[in-house]
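Hey team,

Sharing the Aminotransferase class I/classII large domain-containing protein run so nobody has to redo it. Sequence (461 residues) first:
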Amino acid sequence: MLLPSCIIIRPSFRITTTFYKPSSHWRHHIVPINHSRRLSVPTFINSASISTASSTTVEDHTPSVMAQDGSTPHHPLQVAKRLEKFKTTIFTQMSSLAIEHGAINLGQGFPNFDGPDFVKDVAIQAIKDGKNQYARGFGVPDLNSAIAARFHKDTGLTVDPEKEITVTSGCTEAIAATILGLINPGDEVIVFAPFYDSYEATLSMAGAKITCITLRPPDFSLPIEELKSKVSKNTRAILMNTPHNPTGKMFTREELGQIASLCIENDVLVFSDEVYDKLSFEMDHISIASLPGMYERTVTLNSLGKTFSLTGWKIGWAIAPTHLIWGVKQAHSYLTFATSTPMQYAAAAALRAPDSYYEELRKDYKAKKEILVEGLKSVGFNVYPSSGTYFVVVDHTPFGLPNDVAFCEYLIKEVGVVAIPTSVFYLDPSEGKNLVRFTFCKDEETLRNAVGRMKERLARK
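Structure output:
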């Protein structure tokens, strides 16, 4: 398998109360070992000094199976080489630590409030009506039609709901189906760091060559000259996300136009993850597929969960012209085949919500964002602008911890608040060591309580 073209540096660290031992490839994940050790400061070391052998010393918590002779042999964890560096996700680890320490979870991006009744009622009725067997592989007709109508309303583009849309089990599966269906081993794919962690894992499964371009604070603007130097006839696709997780950046029309020009000139595809399209605060969201000459080379990826606070339903979709959606549909057929049937009917009802729903959604999230942003500033963080999503990235260095992992560990155990270390979103973790991500997809009382804890317990150094 081809390796990413970016230099990779991985941290080794130990954490208070729950001791963590570095795996051969930490970067994204933390593996618990025991509960008796105290914190030692994380240090960054070159990946060349870490063993990449499959016989890594990570403790296996899988129950042992009794052998025929009565002994209980220990079996090491087994994983294919293309995935051995990807351990339990940082989101699972941080959420578990939040529970263990009674911390307020402003880390993982799921709301602590429920979705609207008018959507849930349709799901309940669909279940009662017996819509509980396999759905059509690429989506029930009603949902495909609703997706096409919403896409037309948002972008002005008319798509065929029967030929240009595939419904998936969340946007994460839409991303996987797109990559596995359209990327061959050795194909170069450009990603913008920081990035959603499934991007790298899925590209690795596809055997892609990953080329990384870093978006840097304070505004995380597109480094167009660097992008020009990287895009070539060898580039198969650009995988992008707008509004952007974790930074909250929204790509401007000018930036999207520059990307589009390079893609047209070099015959490059775009995979555009737009799950936060309705959570845009400072500017209007623009789908790159709507730019001249781009629909024919773009797969637009989206989902229901973020907009309707129903992340557990896992309803996503891909929109693309027939010559691209075919590959997506083929991969989807052998990943999940079909998506939850009753929830698809409810998703169709959700997408037909009036504009007033989306206006109220933005209004509500803007108020939550203001509580968190003003609170973080008052605590002493350097807070970077967030134009979309429900995330805010801050610089934690005023508090004297050496990197993001150490800071987040301290924040959970000594302050009682959870954030996500952003180094997990980079090929080179050192690029994100000064940044952490907070989410404001929580009720206002939770946000105020979290800010209160930080004001009381977190001191600048």
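Residues 356 and 362 are 10 Å apart (CA to CA).

Ping me if you want the raw files.
A.
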